[in-house]
Structure formats: C-alpha cells, structure tokens
Amino acid sequence: MGMVLGKITVETPKHEVVHTGAGYEVRKYPPCVVAEVTYDPAEMKGDRDGGFTTLANYIGALGRPQNTKPEKIDMTAPVITTSGAEPESIAMTAPVITSSGEPEPVAMTAPVITSDGGGEAAAGAGKMTMQFLLPSKYSKAEEAPRPTDERVVVREIGERKYGVVRFSGLTGDKVVKEKGEGLKAALEKDGFTVKGPFVLARYNPPFTLPPLRTNEVMIPVE
C-alpha cells in the first residue's frame, strides 16, 4: 500500500545540496560503481528501457543472478532515462544475496540510468546505455560481482553535479521536455555551465498513483 501511495522506503543515492535556486537545486553526488549495458531499442521493438532485463538478470531480480559469486541484489529507485526517452516507470522489486557459499542479503542502490549517448555512458548512433548504480558498499569496480553476461560492464564513475527539479504526476514527453528546458534556462541564468542532456529520474513503480509519484529532471553541470 505504501508504494501505491508513493512512499519511498528503498535506498536512494546520497548527495549534498550545494545550491538552491528558484524551483531547483544543484546536488553533488559522490563517486560510485555502476553496472551498465548498451543496446539498440530498434532491436527490442522500440523499447527504450530494453536494457532493464539484462541488468536485472545480472543482479538476480528475475531469478538466479548472472554474476560469478552469485550475489542477488535488491532493486531500489530511481530509474533514470535521458531526454527523448519514452517515459515508462519500471517496477523495482527483488531480494538480495551475497555468496561465496551460502548467499546472504546485500543492498543495491540506484539510480538506474539510461543514456542516448550524450552523457558519461556514451553509446553509438541510435543506441542507448542503461545503468544500475550499485550499493555504496562497493567503492571499487573490482569489489562488485563480475557479470557472466559479456554485455554488462561494471565500472566506476566519479563525483558529479546535477541541477535537479522535482515534480509529481505522469512523465510524458511534453512534460519532461518542458521541465528540462525550464531547468536548463534557470541554471544558465544563474551562471552554471550545462555539461550534457537532461535525464529523467522516476522513483516509483508504475502502480503508484500518478499524483503521488516522485519524478526529477536532472542536468549535469559544472
């Protein structure tokens, strides 16, 4: 019931608010470890979240984890897509297990990031890259379970800053584009340098009532 009403009870990325503007804030996020996969939505019937199943298999959300430990990891929030993505929320549920013998629970963090190729996770023309942020317990890529699917890459990303605007409701293309353009204009007016395209962060599964959903548009800045 709590998830239907928009309650977020899962782990979300830690950050520091370094600036508060008119209707937005700038956040600094610490380094983290991500698992990512690059794919062509055209090969998945236009599904722009098509990398989700591959990464879900890596962490064990859909069955036995496809990693060498094997280690099963809980999914959390948010799911993140770049501008232009077909905005569709992805449910986040799964148990978590660490194993070198008997599995034991482990936490996974978020966001899951999908890129059209304009950000840190650059892909080829027409392709996208989706990321799951792994738990903060993994400070180095080599500490994370190694994928058995060669399409999944585990790597480290450094400290980064985002301008962020939060909103509720549905995340249709028009709304997201308007939020992104408004945020970009506000950031530039306040002297920030935009470093890449905006992304959409969705914190709730699709069965959450739209007025109670938490969404964010985020733009990387200097």
TrEMBL record:
This is SOUL heme-binding protein. It comes from Leersia perrieri. PANTHER family: HEME-BINDING PROTEIN-RELATED, SOUL HEME-BINDING FAMILY PROTEIN. SUPFAM superfamilies: Probable bacterial effector-binding domain. InterPro entries: Reg_factor_effector_dom_sf, SOUL_heme-bd. Coiled coil: none annotated. Belongs to the HEBP family.
